[in-house]
Fold RNA helicase.
Amino acid sequence: MIIICPQLKAHGACTDPQCKGYHDVHLCKLCGIFCTSTKCYEAHLASKKHHRKLAGHDGSQYQCTICGTPISGRKSWDQHLQGKRHRRKAEKKGVLPEIAPAIPEAFPGKVFCGICDKQIPEGLWPSHPRSLEHRRKEGYTAFKAALEEAEKDKHGIVLSEGLDFGIMENADAARGALRTLTIESTVPSSRVTIKTVSLSSSFMGRQSPFAITTTAEGAVLAYRRPTAIGIQFSTPHSGRMDDRLEIIFEDTALRVTFVIARPLRAIVGSQADYELLKPIAPFQPRRQTRTQPETQVVSGVPPTSNNIIPYTIKLPKAQIPAPLLAALSEMSSGKALDHIRRVFLPKVINSSTYSRYFKTLLWIEEHRMEHDLERYDIPDAQLERHGVYYHLPVPGLAEKRPSVLIGDRFLVQKHGAVEGHWYEGHVHFVRQASVGLRFDKSFRGWSQQQRYTVRFKLNRIPMRRQHQALDTAFTSDKFLFPRKAHILPLAPRPGVGPIRPFNALIATNPPQLQAVTSILLQQPGSAPFAIFGPPGTGKTITMVEAMKQLLKHKPNTRILATAPSNSAADIIASRLASTLGADELFRLYAPSRPFDLVPDELQPYTYKKRLEGEDKSCFSVPPIPTLKGFKVIVCTCVSASITYGIGIPRGHFTHIFVDEAGQATEPEVMIGIKTMSDKTTNIVLAGDPKQLGPIVRSNIARQLGLEKSYLERLMSMDAYEAQSGHGLSVVKLVKNFRSHPAILKFPNERFYANDLESCGNKNIIRAFEGWKKLPSKKFPIIFHSISGKDNREASSPSFFNIDEVTQVRKYIQLLRDDRQVRVAHNEIGVIAPYHAQCVKIRKMLSGVADEVKVGSVEEFQGQERRVIIISTVRSSRDFVEFDLKHTLGFVANPRRFNVAVTRAQALLIVVGDPNVLSLDPLWRSFLNYVHLNGGWAGPGPTWDTTETVDESGEYDQHIRAAAMTDMNLLARRIEGVVSESVQTGTANEDDDDDDHDANFDKPWRELE
């Protein structure tokens, strides 16, 4: 094995002339990483870790090479760079002040380990080299060095470059292609023989699309007479293929055996696709831009609509407390989490500490949201002036990345302006790709050439509304922490005879009928009632039917119906509008809601008010007497605060309904409940805690429970246990009207105790049975195995996979051209977990299949399509560096998986790399299910699909173990002797917290 000098590894230098360690390295003092070749060093300089260090994104101790000053922490480093003293010294030395930080080679009482990238206390240093982490990383470094050594020409033998077959169309790859590698001796007197020629895959028992056609084994290499070795590539599959050619030579004169290796590569796909979708620029993590404080902000001119609703109760400011802000800003995520638990959170969560607990979580989430908004800052913007308005182009606005509403704020600073001086601009209108801002009249100096720095500012109104609700004195245990004692028996049935549903299908569905009956017969002030509605079981239909029955049998009923999103609230209102008039139903919208986003059938159920001094209107509310006269008011969870803010009294509503309750945070749901309920109000929640929960951006807030919805928390309590609470506190809907039995079977068993029944229209759900493209004609699920490459580009941390984009397009073309089963483009949905992949797929389908909806899992929750195609994106060619958290990211999320695979009615197609997906036990079980039922396409699985899945999830360790074996075998072949096994593992350069990058792919919720 190649031994690297331990002094060099530990301290970056070695002065021992007798040292036999390997010294030919490049050392990056910033990162403490050494590389055994220029190629390796250049790769490190382009790596994520190095750029994070350059950007100062970790919490290490640094040293300024200009001032010679030690500095602790990223924030302090940023402040130091802006300091006058530092800039004076830089100017005096004639260098730029913006420099990369250096890690001091020594700190008092510590020794820096270059392999582990850590400062080790001197007392622990003697034992550190023996630690598992150190030995693994040391072994991996040795393997990389051995591989680089193997690819070097040696002993005067020169090989041509590795064989890259390039990008081949499927038909060409199926026919096969030949390439030649040449070997030449450059030493006249040498006598070297080719002993063996082999592929690395053969040593691991793996099938390979590469084959050796001409070996030249036994040939004696003559001086300057090239010897050829033929390699054939052939495969019927798409994707990226690689292997390694290893040639063992023997120098008979010196009696030395040595190895020279060359990589073999090929891509099977479309050359045109790769040219169209290739990265626009190499990935470079975006540096932090907000180093300059906002010391003076000139307030802008808010839109008139901000005052269109006659509030009588003011919103609290609810600013983040300074000590909490300091902890979030200055501590690492792990330390901040521990500190917040000890200092800011109550030891016990009960009715008296409930508000304090959730207010703290809201502040934590707000801090993260503000931080995430920085990604959208525009450092070099131009403004267009039109009268009093300034138009600002906003990249990503059409995709709501970020989401911008009327009334939101931007901060704008002219290039060259006084440091810290900013102008606030309020959004007065939002267009497809730009927003219209108004500034204070002192905003001068505009020209078409003038450039500006633009910062996005978080709209705090939704957060303040949640704080306002949490601050109310209503803290009933019955609503917040219901127990079995709070569940009241059902009241006698009103009238005579059974309920006659407005929707006739409910009469044939016992669980739905039970839920409607229970809600109708609940006594006033009962514990919250939950409609547990798994995918496609009709929970919204059930909830709307319950509202209609209440209004029919109890004329004094007044209902506040809410949902987390406007789209979900619109569905409720549209279904109620079939039986309620405009004097009975009111659809309450926030003033910022654009008219063109409201369904035509709901326009008569709204109220608009003309803006003072302007020739336009916006949504508002009628006078309180009129508003109180409506039987049902429908709005979003956040907009429910309007009813409280304008003075509707607590207890006015007899019932509060919350649809899609699993998608809202608990404080969101509490806006309506804590402001409008009294002890006689009945609460009804509908949703599925097994599907996606609310979008929470802060990892700290998530770990502290903000991602757990109110519905999920209730469903985990004894009072909502399925048996004892059935019909009194909860009803589980079990008839699925959406999916083919085969599509439903796996999620049914994994998430719903096999309770669901497939009851969909057979003409729809069985339409693809017998389809000629199905691997198994009665099984309408395809898993298409493909080994691609996940890329990133420019400053976006989001992943995309060109190989999978091409395969997705092929399936859409097959469906479009098929004459056996007719499918319209709007009946196809494509789900991808990464925003960049969605963008690339849309680009590929542009002008060809624009009606195909392409989006994230979150965008498809609550929706369905006849055909769903899922692109899982993640793929890696280096199994040694597999890390389940970083490689699979949020692809390996049970709820995200559940939502994705339950959107399809008749056909489900999943495109992905099985070697990556199988690291997660849930995905491995699903792949086994598909393979055992004959739905597999592409290269087969590399594991036994009949084996029981290990739910402990150690498959990434298995992959590493196999890679270690491969390393050991290669090392032995290179050395030509049997040597001690390499202790190795992952040399993960991404072990920093990836939360910030992961948040990039989370959509921004549009909260009114």
Notes: The domain at 742-953 is CATH 3.40.50.300 (Rossmann fold). The first strand starts at residue 26 and ends at 28. The first helix runs from residue 6 to 11.
